[in-house]
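pasting for the record
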Amino acid sequence: MAIDWISYIYASTIGGGGIMTYVKSGCPVALTLGVVGGGLAGYSASKSSINPQNTQIMQGVSLIHGAIYAHRYYKTKKMVPAGFFALLSAFVLARSVYMMKTGIEAAATEIVKSS
């Protein structure tokens, strides 16, 4: 069982971003989106650490956050934070789909055994 560090980092980035936005601008929607999204992503990271193919929640979270931040980037043309979070969410979405399809832990185990 390998720890899914990338998903945990994504979850903390989403949660921390929501908290920072709330502190900076007082926007309760950002706080809610960040805490709920980060919490769901953290829960999914714990599930994918046990079974690498269990990434459906992470796919949903990264798809929703990716769409929201891509729309914000389209409106503002600001790379930080909207473009950064859109790209990060796209990466996590692609990675979680890959993990679900291939079972990344099994592939890594085979490489280690053959060495």
